[in-house]
Design brief:
Blueprint lengths: L14 H26 L8 H11 L9 H11 L8 H10 L5 E5 L4 E7 L5 H14 L5 E7 L60
Parallel strand pairs: 2-3
Antiparallel strand pairs: 1-2
C-alpha cells in the first residue's frame, strides 16, 4: 500500500507533503509487514517459522530449525487435534488429512493393529508422526506394529534348450589361392567298376638279308 495514493487532493500541488510521504513509506512498509505476520501467525497452516516456533514453545515441542517447515506444521496440528471419538474410520481420516501414506488394518479378535506403508512413499518425518498418533490415539489394550515394504526387480536370463556360443577369430594374412573341384557319386545297389588300361609299346621287327 502506498501512502501517496491516500493523500488528499488539496495537497497535490504541495511539494513538501509528497516528499514527507515518500520518506515515511519505508517505515510504513515495515509496520504493514509486521501487522500481517501477527495475523497469519495465529493460524497453523499460514504461520511462518517464527510463528511455528511460538506454537511449539506453547505445546512443549522442541524447535528444530533444520527441519522442513511443513513437517513442523503437521507436528503442531497433531498436538492440537480436537477431541473426537476414536474409531478406525476417524483414524484413517486423520492419517489422510496429515498426508501420512499408511494403511490401517485392525484385528478385533486378537486386538492387534497393523500399519503398513511403502518404504519409498513414506518419509522419516511422516513415520515419526505415525508413531506418535499410534501411541496417543489407539486404545491401550490394542497392540500395534508398523510394516514398511519395498519392492525390487532383478532380471536373470533363463534358457530352455541349448545355447551355442560362437567365437569368431579373424586374421588378415597373405594366403595363396587354390581351387579344387571334387565330385562324389552315390550308388544304390550293386556297382561294377571296369578299369581299362592302355599301353603303347614300340614293336621290334627283325629283317633277314
Amino acid at each position: 500500500m502506498k501512502l501517496i495514493d491516500y493523500m488528499p487532493d488539496y495537497y497535490n500541488d504541495i511539494y513538501d507533503m509528497k516528499e514527507i510521504l515518500k520518506a515515511e513509506q519505508p517505515a510504513f512498509d515495515k509496520l504493514e509487514d509486521r501487522t500481517y505476520r501477527i495475523l497469519i501467525n495465529q493460524f497453523v497452516m499460514l504461520a511462518d517459522s517464527d510463528g511455528l516456533a511460538m506454537m511449539e514453545f506453547q505445546l512443549g515441542i522442541e524447535t528444530d530449525l533444520s527441519r522442513d517447515i511443513e513437517d513442523r506444521r503437521y507436528d503442531i496440528l497433531m498436538h492440537t487435534l480436537p477431541p473426537h471419538p476414536i474409531t478406525i474410520k476417524y483414524f484413517r481420516k486423520v492419517l489422510k488429512d496429515l498426508h501420512i501414506p499408511a494403511e490401517i488394518q485392525v484385528n478385533a479378535i486378537t486386538d492387534f493393529l497393523i500399519a503398513s506403508a511403502k518404504w519409498d512413499e513414506i518419509t522419516a518425518d511422516q513415520l515419526n508422526r505415525l508413531k506418535y498418533l499410534l501411541n496417543v490415539y489407539i486404545p491401550a489394550n490394542l497392540a500395534f506394529e508398523i510394516h514398511t515394504t519395498a519392492e525390487s526387480e532383478s532380471k536373470f536370463p533363463l534358457f530352455i534348450g541349448t545355447a551355442t556360443d560362437y567365437k569368431v577369430v579373424t586374421s588378415n594374412q597373405p594366403q595363396t589361392k587354390w581351387h579344387m573341384t571334387s565330385q562324389l557319386k552315390l550308388f544304390m545297389g550293386t556297382y561294377t567298376q571296369i578299369k581299362v588300361s592302355t599301353s603303347n609299346h614300340a614293336k621290334e621287327e627283325k629283317l633277314n638279308v
